[in-house]
Amino acid sequence: MTIFRGDLAHCPTLGRLDILSDYCLGVNSEGFITHLAAASSSELLASSPPHKITSIPAGSFLLPNFCDLHLHAPQFLYQGTGLDLPLMEWLDKYAYRAEERIDADRALARRVYTALAARLIEHGTGCVLLFGTIKPETNLLLAEVMQEAGIRAFVGKLSMDKSTREAYREPGTSASLEAARTFIHDCRALTSRLPPHRRLVEPVLTPRFVPTSSDEQLRGLGEIAQEDPSLRIQSHLAEAQDQVNWVRSERGREDIDVFDQAKLLTNRTVQAHCTFLTDPCLDRLHERGTAVAHCPLSNMYFSAEKAFPLREALDAGVKVGLGTDIAGGYSVDIMNSMRHAVSVSRIRQGIYHEADTGTSTSRRAIDWKEALYLGTRGGAVALGLENAGRFAVGCSFDAQQIKLIDPGSRQGVGSLDFFDIADTVTLTAEIVEKWWCIGDAQNRVQVWVQGQKIG
User: Where's the Amidohydrolase-related domain (predicted)?
Assistant: First the structure.
């Protein structure tokens, strides 16, 4: 057993921050937490023979890893560029071409995916839901890279039997469905020889969005999902006005209805964005158990007419986590997603307050603690990972060590400055908030997934 002793912090429920000061946390050989107690009452410290203790020094703390619910792995190729067009034009000019290039060049794909894995670890993301490309072999490579890096990754081979870029689509509906089945089988085979707790990569059924899927294809994917109750599903839903209008013109329906009729709105589904959903649609997501990947940064570029109704979704009981949406969002750091989520929600609060001439009591903003929940435990719940995103006996030890103060110099680390440091550093909500607002990768010392140190 590995024993950690020090301060822990997590958000087990929305809006609640628990600081566990001077705790002992025990992790077994399979990477699960088997002991959690205050050091003053922990029998592990008095055991014979004594356990080896890994101390988390004062001024540092353990936090659950971040979970990124929406990231396009091949688009990491052009991260931070090409954000000048509306969504549908942007896809043609940038996204499809980059994905096609990745599919055509295995060496390039490995370089991009290896760099992406390193950046995820650097920024404390130990769990990620990934969109890939249409070629099965390239997505298997993506799965291999994530497994080798030790990241808990859910990999989606794109299903696209339609496309505005004719060179980048699958040859037909039957071929697309067969490719999806093959990828699911082959992805699982990658880790089949490993013990269950070391199988970090899983396949995800991934119709890109309604404009790139025929009704026949979506129905076929729905049948695959019904046949396999462990299979997760992901797509994009009601992201941008031009996309919503496209679906209405082409299908004569809302895209939520298209997904629902294909039986693709399930309690294993994560839908990205959802900015243009009405309250009744949010209620439908809750009824179906479908989760939302909220991507506030990319929404600023592609959903500028409307922000995602985050507070309304949470109040409706919808499962929500955060996504970076690389490369529609330019930052791979979930901390930026958390901060943007709060900023956008506060703007919404001000807009509604002004519209109600100062009389509104409706709350639409979220605070930093709620955002921290969304970036950790909320993402895990959205993925059906009940034993992740928090510190509790039986949960996976997926954690990051955050260093706030250097014990030698007694100075803040990175961009953090402290002016009233006592002889004994006590972790408080105020200190965690300071890190949440202005901390960065310099504060991240170590990262573990399933008990294994990966960074």
Answer: 61-425
Backbone angles phi, psi at 130, to 5 degrees: -110, 135
Segment 405-417, tens digit of pLDDT:
998 888 999 999 9
End-to-end CA distance of the chain: 20
- Cα 385 versus chain centre, distance: 12
Answer whether 0.90 is exceeded by the pTM: yes
Indicate the CATH number of 2-64+389-453 among 2.60.40.420, 2.30.40.10, 2.40.128.50, 3.40.50.2300. Answer: 2.30.40.10
Q: Which of 99, 70, 130, 16 is nearest to 275 (CA)?
A: 70
> Contact at 8 Å (CB) between 326 and 297?
no
Q: What token pair was written down for 158? A: 């794109």
Taking domain 66-382, whether its CATH number is 3.30.420.40 is answered by no
Q: Where do the structural domains in the chain lie, given as residue ranges?
A: 2-64+389-453, 66-382
Do the Cβ atoms of 290 and 268 come closer than 8 Å?
A: no
Return all residues near 107 (Cβ < 8 A) that are at least 6 apart.
Answer: none
pLDDT for position 383? 98
In whole numbers, what is the pLDDT of the chain averaged over residues? 94
Lowest mean pLDDT among 45-49, 291-295, 390-394, 416-420: 45-49
CA distances from 289 to 318, 319, 390 (A): 7, 8, 21
